[in-house]
Each structure stands twice: as C-alpha cells, then as structure tokens.
Amino acid sequence: MKIKLAKTAGFCMGVRRAMNIVLDAANEKKGKLYTYGPLVHNPQAIEMLKQKGVEILDDNSVSNATVVLRAHGVTPDERKKIKEAGNIICDATCPHVAKAHAIIKKEIRQGYKAIIIGDRGHAEVNGLLGYTDGNGFVVENIADIDNLPELDKACIIAQTTQDRKIFQEIIEKIKKKIPDVKIFDTICDSTNMRQKEVLELAKEVDAMVVVGGKNSANTRRLYEISLSVGIPSFHIEHEDELDNLGMEQYENIGLMAGASTPNWVINKVIDKIKYLLKKRKSRLYRFLESVGDFIVESTLYLSLGAVSMCYTSLVFQDIKPSPTILSIAFFYVFAVHIYNRYTERLKDEFFDPTRTGFFRDYGKPLILSATIAAFTSLYLAYLVGIIAFVFLLFSYLMGIIYSIRILPEKLSSLIKYKRLKDFPGSKDIFVALAWAWVMIMIPILKQEIYFSLQSMIILVFVILTVFMRSVIFDIVSIEGDRIVGRETIPILIGQKRTLGMLLVLTVIIGAVMFSSAVSGLAPTLGYYLILSPAFMVMCLYAFQKQRIQAGRLFEAIIDSNFILTGLVTYLWRLT
Ligand code: SF4
User: Fold this and answer.
1) DSSP string spanning 181-200?
2) Is 512 helix (H, G, I), strand (E, B) or coil?
3) C-alpha angle with apex 46: 45 to 52, nearest 5 degrees?
4) Do the domains 11-95 and 96-186 sit in the same CATH topology, yes or no?
C-alpha cells in the first residue's frame, strides 16, 4: 500500500511567488490589503488569506490601499487606474507572464499584430490583450483562425497554460494564412511537466487523486489526463471528500495537485489517505504505529536523542557519564520542546494538521508532564550543586524572556522586532545554545573541572548539529511559517541559500572534528562524529528529491541522528 506523490504537485513557481508576496505584505500589516481578483483558484487558500485580512478586489474602487497584482498579470490600463486611485501596487505577475507582456509590447511597436492563443476572457489573456493597443486577436481553436482579418505580419503568443499540441496545430494553420509570422512559445514548462508527470504516474498506480479547486482549469486538466489512462480518478478539493470513495481497496494511489493547491492541503489529503489505508492493516500493526507516532510527536524520541548527545559530549570530554546529568538533559529537552510545540500548535494547523490534532487531544496532559519534567530537572541540577541549579534555572528563564515582549510600546513603530522570538532565526540559535548549555556546562560543574579545549570542540559540535536540525525543520515548514508571519532563516535568505548554509556548516563540523582528532587535540572519536552532519545532509537531500515526505517518519529519521551519534560514541568507547 503506497501513496505516490507527484514531484510537481502543488504551487508552481509563479503562484508560490505571488502567495509569498501577499503573505509578506499581510505580515507587515500596513493598512488595507487586496488582491486584484482571487489570487488562486483554491477555496482553502482564499479562506486562509481572508483570515489574514486579505480581501479580493473585483474593480478599481479602492484607494489608499495596497493592491497585489496576481500571477496572471493585468492590462496597463488597469494598472494605471489602480495607481491613480492612490494605491500602492505590489506586482506579483509571474515572470513568465511578464515576459509575454514584454514580447507583445516590442512586436506591436515594430508594426506586428498580436495573435494570442488561449482562452477568451481568461484573466491572463485579457492582460496580454491589454498590451496590444487594440492590435490583438484571441484564437481559442482552429475554427477561430477563419475569423481573423487579413494580416500581413503577426506575432503569435501562447497563454502560459496552453496545451502545446493545440498550439502547434494552430500555428501550422496560421502560417498558411499570414505571410510573415513570428512565433513565441510562451507556454510555461511547469504546466507541461505537471501534465507529463500525471500521465506517467497514472500508468504506475491503481487510482489517482487530483487535489485542487473545482474551478481551477489546470487541476481539471490533470484530472482528465488521469481519467484518459483508464484508472479510477478522483478530483477533490478537500480531504473529507475521500470518505466513501473506497480508497482502502487500492494498492498504489497516485497523488497530484494543481498549480494553485497549497502544500498544507496536500498534507491533509495524504494524512487522510494514510488514515483510510490504515484500516486494512492488522490491529497489532496499527497499535505499534500509533505508539511510534506518539513517541515522536510527544518529543520523547527527541529527548532520548538529547540523552544520546549528552552521552557523546561527556565521553568526548573524558567525563564519566552520570545518570543524573543524562536525566537532566532528558527532562530539560522534553519540557522545553513540549512548551514550544504547544505554543506553535496553531501555526501547525496549516503545515501539519496531525500535530495540531495531537496537541488538541493530548495538550493538557503533555503540558502537565512538561511542567513536572522541568521541576524534576531543576531538582536534579540542585543535587549536582547550587551553581548547576542556577545555570539550569537561567536556561528556563531565558526561554520565558525569549517569548515575552521586551521592547516598550513607544518604540514599536521604530523597531519591527518586539520580542527575542521575533528575530529571524532566533529560535534555531536559542535552541542550539540551550542544548549546549545543559549538555556541556552542567557536567563540567558536576565534575568541578575546567572548560577545556575538548569542551570547546564538542560545544561547537553540539551547537552546530542542533542548529542544523532546527533549520532543516524550518525548511520543511516554510509555508506554515510564512502564513503565521514567523521569520525563519529560509524565509529570510531563501531556501536555496539556506541549503548552501547547511552544506557549509557540514563542512565546518567535519573540518573541526577531523583536524582536532588528527592533531591529537581531541579523541579519535572526532573522526566518527563527522557521520552526524553527513547523515543530516543526506536526509535533507532525500527530502528535497521527495524520497521522504515531511511528517512523523521524516522527523524520526532526522532525530535518529542524535541516537546515531550516541551509538557511534558507545562503539568507539568499546574499542
Ligand atoms: S503556471 Fe507557469 S506561467 Fe503560470 S503562474 Fe505558474 S509558473 Fe507562472
């Protein structure tokens, strides 16, 4: 039983860019915000934007507002009217569409007429026509060619979502009618690739689910392609529509989504299919799977990972692993991460609905357990010594200060960031520092030894490894973070640069561990610990290539890195 998610499912570049522009503008909260027409043909995405205060503008009747031009683009006249009404324009026109605008402008200036092959009345086609200065014609099908006037020279442009086969057929006929034609294939590859992939996928699976708005033309086309292969195909907007479709009977289910379908909608559909497929599995399997999910979701697995990292840190510094220190690491990480997840559960509604549901069901007992864990860790630190207790208490206090407003109301208009939490990437840095603080400083206090060079090396290792883990999850949750307005590193510097940064960090960790081991400044364990960042980069690569999907399993794999580190240390110690 498998769900095969198409690589091209979901937002295309143009729609993702437009959505990011709108969300960034909404998060800045600078007055009224409109999109010029619905941003995407997807009811859930429109509803989410509405919740963020983004309204849809159907005419030019507003003034002194910010108006976002959607990916389809608009005519120069519409643009002028919006501006003249005193609005600020945020241009989210897709670069592919903008390129077609530029071609038309240039060709019209050179005396060519423009023939646009596309759907008459479609917003993008209207926008393209607007650039022809009244010298443009729309051709929807072969029959329309006969209605064209006598033309000496014309340029041909395609609506970006046009079917390439139809485009070619129309061109061939136009060439026979007009002596001088210039052809510009402005069809966007994104549509093409999506259609090709759904065709290929439909041949490999038993049934296909196509997710997207019922009014989305590109989603409907994907559904039709899948149907044409002869497999059961379902076009759904919402995961609840899967009830009673008999998904349980299929062995392999393909999942494709239109260009305007957000990832969180796709995630909800995946979760629902998984839930339906679960019914086919044995009770024991379902029980074990639920236990596994609980262990990961409740951060118990991560807390065990913290114990494992703490063990490595102790061995590396030649400190005898003590159950008290390992327990402090466990309870501290459990408490902090549960509080964190609980406070962020609303963001997860968009990105990870399963987590939201989990905290709806178990939130209260988990918060109680986290509070008990926090007091237990403090008590254990007290047993270590009063300084260790103060160190740990300080760590918890920093966690509280991190989330509360530190900037006076008066300065709010001058400085965007009011809490430490608001600084981009601050969570990743704080979490990494907190782990290192608890795993390195408290053991040192217990042993009453000095902070050595080895302590420094393992400190760098722990900080960078925990930081990398945190950034990887930021990459995974980039869509949800943008919706709730959280500025993470991938949002600030972009996904590509973040990946580059992670690679650089991997090299730094590798270089530090290798050089310290080879020079004798650190134990030979350093060589083996290079495995840790390498493992994380491999996981990230698999995620980028869609070999693993975001979710419980991905989280468990990433957190297994900590367990792996402890295991490597244990084996090294045995040798
Ligand atoms: S389908 Fe292509 S042209 Fe249209 S918005 Fe997406 S990327 Fe741009």
Assistant:
1) EEEE----HHHHHHHHHHHH
2) helix
3) 90
4) no
Task: Indicate which residue's Cα is closest to atom 8 of ligand 1.
Answer: 14
User: How far apart are the CA of 362 and the centre of ligand 1, in A?
Assistant: 42
431 lines ligand 1 (CB under 6 A): no
Catalytic annotation present for 124: yes
CATH of domain 11-95: 3.40.50.11270
* Centre of ligand 1 from the C-alpha of residue 93, in Å: 9
Cβ–ligand 1 distance for 486 under 6 Å, the answer no
Q: How far apart are CA 268 and CA 52, in angstroms?
A: 20
Banded model confidence at residue 449, pLDDT cuts 50, 70, 90: low
The catalytic residue among 107, 124, 487, 555 is: 124
Residue ranges of the domains in the chain?
A: 11-95, 96-186, 190-281, 290-574
pTM of the prediction? 0.76
| Domain 190-281 coded CATH 3.40.1010.20 | yes
Q: What angle do CA 226, 231, 235 make, to 5 degrees?
A: 50
Q: Give tens-digit pLDDT for 94-134.
A: 999 999 999 999 999 999 999 999 989 888 999 999 999 99
Question: Which CATH code, of 3.40.640.10, 3.40.1010.20, 1.10.275.10, 3.20.20.70, is assigned to 96-186?
Answer: 3.40.1010.20
